[in-house]
Amino acid sequence: MEEVEDALARELMISIGVIKVYMLLLRKGMLNAREVADELDMDEGKVKDALSNLVRDGACIEINGRYEALNPRFAVTNMYRMLCLRMNREVKRNERIDGIASILAKIYDDARR
Question: Mean pLDDT across the stretch 91-105?
Answer without folding.
Answer: 95
